[in-house]
Amino acid sequence: MTFGTIRQAMGTFATGALALGIVALAPSLARAQGNAGARPISLEEAVRLAQQNSPLTVQARNANRTSESAVRASLAQFLPTASFSYSGNQAGGTQFVQGTPVPTSGLPWSYSRSVSSNLTLYDGGQRNYNLRAAQANLESAGANEVAQRYSVALTVKTQYFNVLAANEQLAASKQLLEQAQQQLTVASAKMKAGVATLADSLTSAIAVGNAKLSILTAENSLRNANAALTRLVASPVMVTATLADTMDTGKIELDEAQLLSMVSDGPSVRQSTQALEAARAQHKAATTPYMPTLALNASYGQNPKQSQNFNFGGGPTATSTRFGLSLNYTIFNNYTREQSLLVARVNAENAEANLRDAKALVVQNLTTFLSNYRTAQSTIELQLLTIQSAREALRVVQQRYNLGTSSLLEVLQAETTLDNARAQLINARVNARIAKANIEALIGRDLK
To answer: Contact 320/301 with Cβ under 8 angstroms?
Structure first.
C-alpha cells in the first residue's frame, strides 16, 4: 500500500468521523425551532396588550381614579353636611316609695328624631388650597399614567427588538452554515483529488459544526426572547415578532431643537411640575390653622308622645329648632400647626429640587439617546457597505481557492470578516431601535 493511498484513507476516515459528529447535531437542530407554534404579533399590538395588562399601567390608572375621587371629595367640602337621627327607647324597672320597691310609673316607650346640618363659612382658605392640591395631584397622576404607559412600551419594544435581533442572527447563522457546507464540499473534493491537505478538509468540517452550533444558539436566544415577550403582553399562547418588521429601524424626522422642546413638556417633567404645584398648595393649606373658622349650623327635632307599646313614634309630637353661628380660633395646640407647616415647606422645597433635576435629566437623556441613535444609523450604513464588500471579497477568495491559488486560511478569514459585519449590523439595528424607543418614552409620544 502506497503512502498516498494510506493518506487518502486516513482523510476519508477523519472526514467521515467529523461528518457523523455533525450529523449528530441534526436532531437538536430539528427540535430547536425558535418560532415553532408561536403566533406572530405586530409591534403595535404588543405595546397595546402590554399597556393594557402590565401591573405598572394598571396601578397608574387606579392612581388616576383615586386622584379624581380626591378632587370630588375636595369639592364636596364646600357643601353643607346633613344628618338624620332616630331613636326609640323602652324604660322599665322599679323605684322605692316609702322604702318599698314598686314598678316605675309612666309609659315605657319614648321616641326622638331629628335632622341637622352644618356649613363652614370660612376656614382661612383651607378648602380652596386643598382643592388646588387635589387638582394638581390629578394632573400629576395623569402625567404619571402617560409615563408608565411609555415605560411599559419601552420595555416591550426592547424585548420585541431582541426577538428581531435573534431572528436576524438565526438568518445569518443559516447563511454561515450554507457557506461552510459549500466550503466542505470543495475541500473534500480537492483532498480526494490530491490537491488539498487533510487539514483543509478537517477545518471545513469543523466550520460546518460551528455553524450548526451557532444556529442552535440563535434559536435558543429566540425561544427565550419569545417567552419574555409573551409574558410582557400577557398572552396565553406563545407569541413572536412579525418578520416583516425585521428591516425597519424607524426614522426620526424631527431635529434636536424640536425634540428638546418636546422633552421639556414630557411626562416626567409634567409630573414633577404638578407635584410642585400640589406641594405649594399644601404648604398654603398648612397656614390656614392660624386663621379662625366660622360655621353655620341648624337642626330640627321631634319628640313624639310616649306610648305603652312600640309604635315608631306616631301620634302627637313636641318639636324643637336650633340655628347657630359659631366662631373658633385655636390659640395654642402644642406646636401641631408649626410642625405641619414645617413639613409642608420642606415638601415644597424637595418638589422644587426634583423638578429642577427632572428638567436637567431629560435633556441629558435626550442628548445620550439621540447620539446613540445617530451613531447606530451611521453604523448601519457602514456595515451594509462592509457586508457588500466582504461578500465580494469572499467570492474572489473562494474562486482563487478553487483554482489552487489561495489557501483555506484566507477563505476562513474572509468568512469571519463577513460574519462579523453581519453581527455588527444586527447590533446596530437593535441599538437604533432601542434609542428611538427611549426618545419616545422621554417625550411621551410616538415618532412615526
So the answer is: yes
Q: Please name each of the domains of the chain with its CATH number.
A: 3-443 (1.20.1600.10)
The number of beta carbons lying within 10 Å of the beta carbon of residue 335 is 10
Contact 173, 34 (CB under 8 A): no
Question: Rg (Cα) of the chain, in Å, rounded?
Answer: 40
Predicted local confidence at residue 191, as pLDDT:
78
Q: What is the pLDDT of residue 9?
A: 41
- Cβ contact 290:379 at 8 Å: no
- For 30: left if phi > 0, alpha if psi spans -120 to 50, otherwise beta; the answer is alpha
Distance CA 278, CA 135 (A): 8
d(CA 343, CA 334): 16
Taking the C-alpha atoms of residue 302 and residue 429, their distance in angstroms, rounded to an integer, is 81
Which pLDDT belongs to residue 247? 58
Nearest-angstrom CA–CA distance, 339 and 346: 11
The C-alpha cell that represents 120 in the structure block = 363652614
Return all residues near 271 (Cβ < 8 A) that are at least 6 apart. 140, 143, 144, 147, 358
Instruction: Give me the pLDDT at residue 401, please.
Output: 82
Quick one: pLDDT at residue 19? 44
pLDDT in tens, 358-371: 999 999 999 999 99
Angle between helices 3-23 and 198-233 (to 10 degrees): 10
Q: What is the per-residue pLDDT for 99?
A: 72
Residue 215 and residue 29 in contact, taking contact as beta carbons nearer than 8 Å? yes
Provide the pairing of β-strand 293-304 with 239-241: unpaired
State the cell numbers at 299.
337642626
How many Cα atoms occupy the beta-carbon half-sphere of 147 within 13 Å? 22
Residue 143 · residue 127 · CB < 8 Å: no
Q: How many CB atoms lie within 10 A of CB 156?
A: 23
Enter the C-alpha cell of residue 44. 403595535
What pLDDT is recorded for position 379?
A: 95
Alpha carbon distances (Å) from 176 to 26, 181, 182, 441 = 16, 9, 10, 37
pTM value is: 0.77
pLDDT < 70 stretches in the chain: 1-36, 105, 195-196, 245-248
CB 352 within 8 A of CB 343: no
Please tell me the distance from the alpha carbon of residue 410 to that of residue 415, in angstroms, as a whole number. Answer: 9
The secondary structure element, H or E, covering residue 48 is helix 43-53
In whole angstroms, give the CA distance from residue 247 to residue 429. 8
Instruction: For residues 363 and 75, give the distance between their C-alpha atoms in angstroms, rounded to a whole number.
Output: 38
Q: Which residues pair with 85 in a beta bridge?
A: 114
CB neighbourhood size of 179 (10 A): 20
